[in-house]
Amino acid sequence: MIIHKPKIERIEDRIRISSFIEVESDNNLSKTLWFEVPLMYESWLSVNSNAFLIATISFAMCLRENINVEGTLSPRLVYNSNQYQSYLKYWLPHLYISRITCNSIKQEKIEPKATVLTFSGGVDSFYTLYKHLAENETIPEYRITHCLFTHGFDVNLRQEKDFTVIKNGYEKMLSNLNIPLISIASNFREFNDRKVPWHEVTFGPAVISTALILDKNISKFLVASHSIPISPCGSHPLTDHLLSTENLEVIHHGMTSSRLYKTKILSNWPVTYDYLRVCWEKTNGLLNCCECEKCLRTMIPLELTGTLSKYSTFPKLLKIENIKNWNYQYLLYASDILNEADKIGRSDISNAVKEAIKTHSSLKLCEL
Ligand SMILES: [Zn+2]
Fold this sequence. Notes:
alpha/beta; 11 strands; binds zinc ion
């Protein structure tokens, strides 16, 4: 696979940085990979190929191709990319470890300033945001200065109207916290989804590549982690930091806090009441469908804290019948909620969760 030299061009009020990715074993898979950022962030734009390497590395591993980069790479990233590939191969043995060559290996001496969080408006990213506000984070360099939201990840590039509604909402909410929102667009998924699974492999490199595109001014990049259990996943505490460079530190944050704990913290933070968006099943602006697994995983703990009715983004009532049929992702999420419901005497919810566990536990035991 050849990662061609990055090209930068202006498209209306945005700047596009792109690279033609040439697939040597099957030319039909060759495609230009691009990222677009607002014009005001032009001075943050990278001059190296680090982002394009991590955005395509698993694609090359799937195709069993080596990678030749017609550009410059960070020494730290090249060194760690072997370790990164080893983890992927350990989890998915059919993958190939790609040999990486490039025109030059060096790191430009710069002093980036911003601490940026990738933000999607869910429980994990709101929790990481909350923990890195000035009142909660004592070390100034680790306080979040900007959030970054990407069109083309959980909101499809074709859903322009939805993206604009969500982006405008987050911009308004974050401006009250004095945090600007950087809105990026990318065809990363259109490129990678053809061969590599999003959840299992690419979503960590996806969000980190958007930071590396702006690496002239990002010194710390926070990736909000989902809660334990630790299982092979595209964004993982073992692998995300391996995609750091000398100037940009990737921090995987929040893994050891349970989802129940995070939800309880958010329920006491009114900023979340009109903006918490967890549903990826049926996107409708900021509104959640209130019926899918992920919605229930969030609505039940909010109900237990007595705050669900305050959330305008969950417009439907929580039905006991839906809890009984809840096909929870991890048994740990269900057992945490069950314990909490028992503790506060909500037998209606604890009985319904017990029923869900009875129905689904045999399928979930392998996660313990
Ligand atoms: Zn939903």
